[in-house]
Automatic annotation (TrEMBL):
<dbReference type="InterPro" id="IPR051122">
    <property type="entry name" value="SDR_DHRS6-like"/>
</dbReference>
<comment type="similarity">
    <text>Belongs to the short-chain dehydrogenases/reductases (SDR) family.</text>
</comment>
<dbReference type="GO" id="GO:0004316">
    <property type="term" value="F:3-oxoacyl-[acyl-carrier-protein] reductase (NADPH) activity"/>
</dbReference>
<protein>
    <submittedName>
        <fullName>3-oxoacyl-[acyl-carrier-protein] reductase FabG</fullName>
        <ecNumber>1.1.1.100</ecNumber>
    </submittedName>
</protein>
<dbReference type="InterPro" id="IPR036291">
    <property type="entry name" value="NAD(P)-bd_dom_sf"/>
</dbReference>
<dbReference type="Pfam" id="PF13561">
    <property type="entry name" value="adh_short_C2"/>
</dbReference>
<dbReference type="InterPro" id="IPR002347">
    <property type="entry name" value="SDR_fam"/>
</dbReference>
<keyword id="KW-0560">Oxidoreductase</keyword>
Length: 239
C-alpha cells in the first residue's frame, strides 16, 4: 500500500502515467500529476476520482526553468515517475535533423531535467522511474533516433542508480502499448499495426497501459530493486 506516500508523475495525464496514477491513488498515495495541457490534467483528475488526493501542475518538462520552478513547489516527496514524452519515427536519411533533435529534446532532456531537479526533493528511501522503450533493445527500421533516445535513458538510469543512491533509480521499457500516444494514426492503420504486432509476439497480444503501470508500481514498491531496466514488452525483444 502507498498510504502516506507522495508521488509525482510527470506525464500523469494520459496513457501509462494516468494508469499508474489511478493505481497509486487506489493504494492511498497522494499524487501530483503534471503535463502541458491543463484540459488533459483536469480530465485525468476526474478519472482518478473525487476521493483521491490529486494535485495538478501545468508543466513542459523540456523547459529547464519550468522544471526547476515545479520542484521548488512540490516540497519533499517519495517517488518520481517520468512518463512524459512525445515520440516519432522516420527513415534515417530523410528525417530532418531538427526532428531528430526534437526527439532528444522531448524524451531524453525532459527526463534528465526531471531527475536532476527532482532528486534533491526526493526522500532518500524513495525512487525514480524513467521510461525507455522497445526500440532501444529490438532494432526497427524507422526508429534509429528514438532507439538512440531510449538507449540513452536506459543508460542514464543505471548510472544515476549509483550516483543518487540510496535513492533507487529504475527504467521501464514498454513494448507496443495501446495508449493515446498513437491517436494521430488513422484508425485502420493503427488497428492493422496492433494486429500484426500481436500475431508475432510470444504473448499474442499488444500491451495495455495497465500492464506497464503494474511494472511501475512494482519498481516503486520493491526497495531492493535499483539500476534495472524492466521490460514490459510481451517478449518483443525475443522475436
Ligand atoms: N505506447 C507505447 O507503445 C510505448 C512504447 C514504448 C515506450 N513508450 C513510452 O512510455 C511512456 C509513456 O507513453 P504513453 O504511451 O503513456 O504516452 P501518452 O499516452 O501519449 O502520454 C504521454 C504523456 O506525456 C505528457 N507529455 C508529453 N510531452 C510532454 C512535455 N514536453 N512536458 C510535459 N508532459 C508531456 C502528455 O500530456 P500533455 O500532452 O498534456 O503534455 C501525456 O500526459 C513514454 O516515455 C513513451 O515513449 C510507450
Amino acid at each position: 500500500m502507498l498510504a502516506g506516500q507522495k508521488i509525482v508523475i510527470i506525464g500523469g495525464s494520459s496513457g501509462i502515467g494516468l494508469e499508474t496514477a489511478k493505481r497509486a491513488a487506489s493504494q492511498g498515495a497522494e499524487l501530483i500529476i503534471a503535463s502541458r495541457s491543463r484540459q488533459k490534467l483536469e480530465q485525468a483528475k476526474a478519472v482518478i476520482g473525487d476521493n483521491a488526493k490529486v494535485s495538478t501542475y501545468t508543466l513542459d518538462v523540456t523547459d529547464e526553468e519550468q522544471v526547476q520552478s515545479f520542484f521548488a513547489e512540490t516540497g519533499v516527496f517519495d517517488h518520481l515517475v517520468v512518463s512524459a514524452a512525445e515520440t516519432g519515427g522516420g527513415a534515417f536519411l530523410t528525417t530532418p535533423t531538427s526532428a531528430a533533435r526534437g526527439l532528444f529534446e522531448n524524451k531524453f532532456w525532459g527526463q534528465y531535467y526531471a531527475a536532476k531537479y527532482g532528486a534533491p526533493k526526493l526522500n532518500p528511501q524513495g525512487s525514480i522511474t524513467l521510461f525507455s522503450g522497445i526500440v532501444a533493445f529490438k532494432s526497427m527500421s524507422g526508429s534509429s533516433v528514438l532507439g538512440a533516445v531510449n538507449a540513452a535513458v536506459a543508460n542514464l538510469g543505471q548510472t544515476l542508480a549509483l550516483e543518487l543512491a540510496p535513492l533507487r533509480v529504475n527504467v521501464v521499457s514498454p513494448g507496443i502499448i495501446d495508449t493515446p500516444s498513437r491517436a494521430g494514426m488513422a484508425e485502420a492503420a493503427r488497428s492493422a499495426f496492433y494486429s500484426s504486432t500481436a500475431a508475432k509476439l510470444p504473448v499474442q497480444r499488444i500491451g495495455t497501459a495497465e500492464d506497464v503501470a503494474e511494472a511501475v508500481l512494482y519498481l516503486i514498491h520493491n526497495g531492493f530493486v535499483t539500476g534495472t531496466v524492466l521490460h514490459a514488452d510481451g517478449g518483443h525483444r525475443l522475436i
